[in-house]
Design a protein that fits this description.
Order of helices and strands: HEHEHEHHHEEEHEHEHEEHHEHH
CATH topology: D-Maltodextrin-Binding Protein, domain 2
Shape: globular
Radius of gyration: 22 Å
Number of helices: 13
CATH superfamily: Bacterial extracellular solute-binding protein, family 7
Strand content: 15-25%
Distance between the termini: 78 Å
Structural class: alpha/beta
Largest sheet: 6 strands, mixed
CATH architecture: 3-Layer(aba) Sandwich
CATH class: Alpha Beta
Number of strands: 11
Number of domains: 1
Length: 323
């Protein structure tokens, strides 16, 4: 009997410790009901269900952790494990991501999925690693459109002089400068600045104009679709690599499933968002003169940001894949 007890005690002492529960802080800058949150909530649902509660996700929404740039900095430091972040602000850390947002690059959502879910998308995610990020998947904002409070915009000449809020992104500043606007970088949200006239307009997908009630402070909407706007599901690279293999696989699979879910949500609701914006009183130009816009931005390919070693070659690959 004593031998049996001794054997049991020895086994308990030598047994490997149970895997520690994993707690994830996930930051998004938008409020519930927004695209990033739709993806974040699906990610949380999948992770917690498939891990049996061993991995938990707490979503910090509505910029409670700061701007997207500040969330990225916290992910780098490891005080926040994950975020779903618009690619624009990521360019300060990973300049190569700007190739995804090159103006008028993508022609359709089918093309977006073929490219971003393929080797080129994987290459973009891989290039985040030197900056300390593990890129897991692309969710989406969607195609961006212009709104303003001053006048209808049909041709690029109508943009001249408008003070347009842009993301904290070098590319987006250069884009709107090329179009003749006065680009003004601001962190989200911007309703108050639009209401007070600090800025004349902004550019975002339709879900943003509806969810954030921009129709209350913006009269004109032009369906320019000038940039396809993606988010990335990113994690702190060191933290991610330190997780057990099964947990890493779980988070990767959950991120991809959340991405597919959120893309479907955005695309299936676009027509409804547009109808609601019209009903709310916005004056919509559904067929602006896009050739006039394309002519103005053709030269962006020669910006220094796209001439860096590696980035120029990557842009050519994206351009070839979307012709």
């Amino acid at each position: 009997m004593r031998k049996a007890v001794l054997a049991l005690l020895t086994a308990l002492v030598l047994a490997p410790p149970a895997a520690a529960a994993v707690k994830i802080k996930l930051g998004v800058v938008t409020k519930p009901g927004s695209a990033q949150n739709v993806a974040a909530e699906k990610f949380k649902e999948v992770v917690e269900a498939r891990s049996g509660g061993d991995v938990t996700v707490k979503i910090y929404h509505s910029a409670s952790l700061g701007s997207e740039t500040e969330i990225l900095q916290q992910i780098q430091m490891g005080s926040v494990q994950m975020g779903i972040i618009t690619l624009g602000p990521i360019d300060a850390f990973v300049p190569e991501v700007d190739v995804v947002a090159f103006p008028f690059l993508f022609k359709s959502y089918d093309q977006v999925d073929r490219v971003l879910d393929g080797p080129l998308g994987a290459e973009i995610l891989k290039r985040m690693e030197p900056a300390g990020f593990k890129g897991l998947a692309f969710t989406e904002n969607g195609f961006r459109h212009l709104t303003n409070r001053v006048r209808p915009v049909h041709t690029v000449d109508d943009v001249k002089g408008l003070k347009i809020r842009v993301m904290e992104s070098t590319l987006h500043k250069e884009l709107w400068r090329a179009l003749g606007a006065n680009p003004t970088p601001m962190a989200w949200p911007i309703y108050t600045e639009l209401e007070q006239g600090t800025i004349d307009g902004q550019e975002n997908p339709l879900w943003v104009a509806w969810t954030y009630k921009l129709f209350e402070v913006q009269k004109y909407l032009s369906l320019t679709g000038h940039v396809y706007s993606a988010h990335a599901v990113v994690a702190n690279l060191g933290w991610f690599n330190g997780l057990p293999r099964a947990t890493r696989d779980l988070l990767t699979d959950a991120a991809r499933e959340a991405a597919r879910h959120e893309r479907n949500w955005n695309r299936s609701n676009e027509a409804d968002f547009l109808a609601k914006l019209k009903k709310a009183g916005m004056v919509v130009d559904e067929h602006p003169d896009l050739d006039s816009f394309r002519d103005k931005v053709a030269g962006l390919k020669n910006l220094d940001m796209f001439r860096r070693p590696g980035t120029a070659e990557l842009l050519e690959k994206f351009l070839a894949a979307t012709r």
